[in-house]
Amino acid sequence: THFGGNLAGPFFGGTFSDCLTACAENSSCVDVTYTSGGTCYLKSSVGDAYAEAGSCDGLLPVPAPSSSTSSSTSSPSPSAPPTCGGYANGTTTVISGQTFTI
């Protein structure tokens, strides 16, 4: 979960996947916070991180400057315990063409 940067008001009653989809479809969104009560906050910036019991976060990567070198990353094991609507912490998922880190 990250402080600040909320876009408009939160929306209620959806799933964590709905929250990620709403962010993926909003060009100003770079992060989401989803609470255990079903509240979704779309964020236009990523502030300081803090722990909040029962909340989930989905972060879009900051585009890296282009360079002539390449690098690769790997996701943690898919057997990690699910914590956010079936998504495991530290993994990535692609929704509406956007790659989120959970």
Kindly describe this structure.
Helices cover 9% and strands 27% of the residues. By secondary structure, the chain is mainly beta. It has one domain: Hepatocyte Growth Factor, CATH 3.50.4. The termini are close together. 21% of the residues are buried.
Task: Provide a short characterization of the protein structure.
By secondary structure, this protein is mainly β. It is 9% helix and 27% strand.
Spell out the helices and strands N to C.
Answer: EHEEEEEEE
Q: How many domains is the backbone divided into?
A: 1
**Which value, in Å, is the CA radius of gyration?**
14 Å
**What order do the strands of the largest sheet run in, or round the barrel if closed?**
1-3-2-4
Broad structural category: mainly beta
Descriptors for this entry?
8 strands, 27% strand, two-stranded antiparallel ribbon, 102 residues, Hepatocyte Growth Factor, single chain, mainly beta, four-stranded antiparallel sheet
Write the SSE topology:
Layout: E1 11-12, H1 16-24, E2 31-34, E3 39-43, E4 56-59, E5 82-84, E6 87-88, E7 92-95, E8 98-101
Antiparallel strand pairs: 1-3, 2-3, 2-4, 5-6, 7-8
